[in-house]
């Protein structure tokens, strides 16, 4: 997986959004952090993995993938804010349940916010990829869905979203 290509695309998109909203030079780490937590919550909601009280089925894979790539955008963007990058590594499959994996990602978000080191960034990134795998998303799915949403994000900016 060529994450460096996605980092470059994210950097360009972030700059475009910032200039469109007159945010150049402003520190928007806190906003992006909260945005990531919200996206994670939205993703968890679509999987319904924690809804032990309900029998309603989860959303289809396309919806889950769309929510998942919004999270990828903000994880890339938070790394860029801190001058960090993630390089592909051999991934270990998680033995956790989906719910446990979501909770691990939330924990690692908090750790990264409080101590934005390269090590904590790698741990967050790997945990999020593991979550994707648990949800049945391949790295190819992720890359293609990212490219699609990246383009939509430009279109939305151009439409005064
Ligand atoms: O600096 C930024 C700000 C936003 N985004 C992207 C990430 C994500 O892909 C999208 C925001 O999520 P979404 O499309 O769900 O936006 P929303 O405003 O929450 O959507 P809705 O109006 O449907 O609730 O914008 C970035 O990449 N960089």
UniProtKB/TrEMBL annotation:
Keyword rRNA processing: no
Keyword hit for Hydrolase: yes
Coiled-coil positions: none
Superkingdom of the organism of origin: Bacteria
Pfam families, alphabetized: dUTPase_2
This enzyme's EC code(s): 3.6.1.23
Keywords per UniProt: Hydrolase
UniProt-recorded Gene Ontology molecular function terms: dUTP diphosphatase activity
Signal peptide positions on this chain: none
SUPFAM superfamilies: all-alpha NTP pyrophosphatases (SSF101386)
Enzyme class of the recorded protein, top EC level: hydrolase
Name of this chain's protein: dUTP diphosphatase
Species assigned in the record: Ornithinibacillus salinisoli
């Amino acid at each position: 997986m060529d994450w460096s290509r996605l980092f470059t695309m994210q950097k360009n998109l972030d700059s475009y959004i910032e200039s469109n909203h007159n945010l150049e030079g402003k520190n928007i780490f806190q906003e992006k952090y909260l945005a990531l937590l919200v996206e994670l919550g939205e993703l968890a909601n679509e999987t319904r993995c924690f809804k032990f009280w309900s029998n309603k089925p989860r959303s289809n894979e396309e919806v889950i993938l769309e929510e998942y790539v919004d999270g990828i955008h903000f994880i890339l963007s938070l790394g860029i804010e801190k001058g960090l990058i993630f390089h592909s590594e051999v991934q270990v499959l998680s033995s956790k349940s989906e719910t446990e994996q979501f909770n691990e990602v939330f924990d690692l978000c908090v750790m990264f916010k409080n101590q934005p080191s390269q090590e904590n960034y790698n741990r967050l990134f790997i945990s999020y990829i593991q979550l994707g795998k648990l949800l049945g998303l391949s790295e190819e799915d992720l890359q293609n869905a990212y490219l699609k949403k990246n383009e939509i994000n430009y279109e939305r900016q151009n439409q005064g979203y």
